[in-house]
Design a protein that fits this description.
Shape of chain A: elongated
Distance between the termini of chain A: 21 Å
Number of domains of chain B: 2
Radius of gyration of chain A: 20 Å
Oligomer: heterodimer
Order of helices and strands of chain A: HHHHHHHHHHH
Number of helices of chain A: 11
Largest interface: A-B, 21 and 26 residues
Number of helices of chain B: 11
Distance between the termini of chain B: 34 Å
CATH class of the largest domain in chain B: Alpha Beta
Strand content of chain B: 25-35%
Number of domains of chain A: 1
CATH superfamily of the largest domain in chain B: P-loop containing nucleotide triphosphate hydrolases
Order of helices and strands of chain B: EEEHEEHEHHHEHEHEEHEHEEHEH
Radius of gyration of chain B: 23 Å
Strand order of the largest sheet of chain B: 6-7-8-3-9-10
Helix content of chain B: 25-40%
Number of strands of chain B: 14
Structural class of chain A: mainly alpha
Structural class of chain B: alpha/beta
């Protein structure tokens, strides 16, 4: 069953990872040609015009985008967070619901295998692909950055690891939600909604101290990029919270799925 | 004969809509049980509740003397199930689908698979998505039977099959019965099961309205009594039976009185023609659902 699940989800893995890889390869390829002394100067001038809150939102207050690595730490990282988040959410919401939408659940649930075992196998495959996409992007960007110039390797490693935590939380949350849904019709909307609302809340929380509390409602707070850039270390509370949330969501998914009416 | 499956007062509601109201039935080991009812009567809901796809609201299901637990792998291994609508992995070929199915069973089930594929004339190289409804049904039949289950649940197994394949399936089921397999055969066509089944349960609006052996059902059912006489009006009053058809001096009654009593009662009349006919299973079936 695991083999079949890997095969079934390979296509979407290739598509999503290709989107990120193509984007980064293109950026890294053209960045050296864009960045002349003149453009760097005008870029710095432009940054001074932007309000500090906006710069903070993209981490541009603590990093400069006049290098490829600087771009990766600000805008590039935003794309990594969003795309791995959407990919993980789609995996979470569809991995069980697809069987119900395709009506293959009647066949699957009659095989001599327990429901919790079906769920375990699907979770193993999904987590492997989530780790896989992070690893693949990490390796591709590492090669591209090595070619294009010098960068802080420890900081880079931490940056590449950090999206894994919100991704796994998003996967688990969507998995739990899918156990309440009857069909896959609303699944894409729900998944995208969770990712974008979460990201929006995370961005808004950076804008003003008055709404700083919003960050506690966003899973993207768990990828504490500012902490990594400022201290070259990963935030332990974020890891702990990610693990706890994932365990809670997955545990409830098992409970719900065992009770769920499948047709 | 011991009971393999026993269902007591099974009830299932989808919100406020009734799926099944009160299903009570029992299936003896080694018999073929015909589960008959029109579309929407509750056959598939009963079956899906038995196999645990949907949760019952009330009632008990016993399998092999114990309360049925579909999370028990051994129980699942002992049951074969053919749904009314077969949905499989479209991206697979028939061979890949059957290979995949085999991986879930510890025992070697390849021999029976090959026999069934040959009997049903299945092309294993075809993709599932390219199969006709009938061929998809055949794959479903192989999947339900290849692990040689002790109990076989078939929900409308002949829908989509041509008459030749229906006959092949019936031969396979008789072979299975001879091996000791117990079969629950759900259908809305009584004639389809009347040659196969030992016991028949009729379901109407989610309630089992009659359950008996086929022999008893035939013996205890009514007959058609046709009388041709100039005194039909007097005979009608005297017998007090329900009239099926009336034409000039000929009248057809739906009769539930034994032949001796009828003959005694009719001896005082001048009868031109008297005919007592056994009612067909189709007519009997229709009478339950009027």
């Amino acid at each position: 069953m695991i083999k079949k699940e890997f095969k079934n989800n390979l296509k979407s893995f290739i598509i999503w990872s290709s989107v990120l890889i193509v984007m980064f390869v293109l950026v890294f390829a053209i960045y050296p040609f864009i960045l002349t002394d003149e453009t760097v100067e005008s870029l710095d001038e432009m940054m001074k015009v932007f309000p500090p809150e906006l710069l903070k939102t993209f981490n541009m207050d603590i990093t400069s985008i006049n290098t490829a690595y600087g771009w990766l730490k600000s805008e590039g990282f935003m794309f990594i967070l969003l795309i791995t988040g959407i990919y993980s959410s789609f995996l979470g919401i569809n991995i069980l619901l697809k069987e119900e939408s395709d009506k293959t659940i009647e066949y699957l649930s009659f095989l001599p295998i327990k429901r919790c075992s079906i769920l375990t196998k699907k979770i193993i495959v999904s987590l492997t692909y989530i780790l896989g996409i992070a690893l693949l992007i990490g390796v591709v960007n590492f090669i591209a950055l090595t070619i294009s110039g010098d960068f802080n390797r420890k900081e880079y490693l931490l940056l590449i690891i950090s999206p894994i935590f919100p991704s796994i939380v998003l996967f688990s949350l969507n998995l739990l939600i899918s156990t309440f849904l009857k069909s896959g019709k609303k699944s894409i909307g729900i998944s995208l909604g969770i990712v974008f609302i979460s990201y929006l809340l995370s961005m808004l929380s950076e804008v003003s101290e008055k709404v700083e509390g919003l960050k506690y409602l966003s899973v993207y707070t768990l990828a504490d990029v500012r902490h990594i850039i400022e201290f070259t270390s990963i935030s332990i509370p974020c890891i702990v919270i990610s693990i706890i949330l994932s365990i809670v969501f997955i545990t409830f998914s098992y409970i719900r799925y065992n009770k769920k009416e499948l047709v | 004969m011991s009971k393999l499956l026993e269902i007591k007062h099974l009830k299932k509601y989808y919100g406020k809509t009734c799926g099944i109201e009160d299903v009570t039935l029992s299936i003896n080991e080694g018999e073929i049980y015909g589960f008959i009812g029109p579309n929407g009567a509750g056959k598939s809901t009963t079956i899906r509740t038995i196999i645990g796809l949907i949760k019952k609201n009330d009632g008990k299901i016993f399998y092999n003397g114990k309360e049925l637990d579909m999370s028990d792998i051994k129980v699942k291994e002992s049951i074969g199930y053919l749904p009314s609508e077969v949905n499989l992995y479209k991206e697979y070929t028939v061979k890949e689908m059957l290979d995949y199915h085999e991986t879930f069973y510890k025992k070697n089930i390849n021999k029976r698979r090959k026999e069934l594929v040959k009997l049903l004339k299945l092309d294993e190289l075809k993709r599932i998505e390219d199969l006709s409804l009938g061929n998809l049904k055949k794959v479903g039949i192989v999947l339900a039977l290849m692990h040689e289950p002790k109990f076989l649940i078939l929900d409308e197994p002949t829908s989509g099959l041509d008459p030749i394949m229906q006959s092949v399936l019936h031969d396979i089921l008789i072979e299975e019965k001879n091996k000791g397999t117990t079969i629950l055969y759900s259908s809305h066509v009584l004639s389809e099961v009347s040659n196969l089944c030992d016991t028949i349960g009729f379901i109407k609006n989610g309630v089992i309205i009659k359950e008996d052996s086929l022999v008893n059902i035939k013996n205890n059912s009514y007959t058609y009594l046709t009388i041709t006489s100039a005194e039909v009006d007097k005979i009608k009053k005297d017998l007090g039976l329900k009239v099926k058809e009336e034409n000039d001096n000929t009248i057809i009654f739906i009769n539930n009185i034994d032949a001796n009593t009828i003959i005694k009662k009719l001896s005082k009349y001048n009868i031109e023609r008297l005919l007592i006919e056994e009612v067909s299973l189709e007519d009997l079936f229709s009478s339950f659902y009027k």
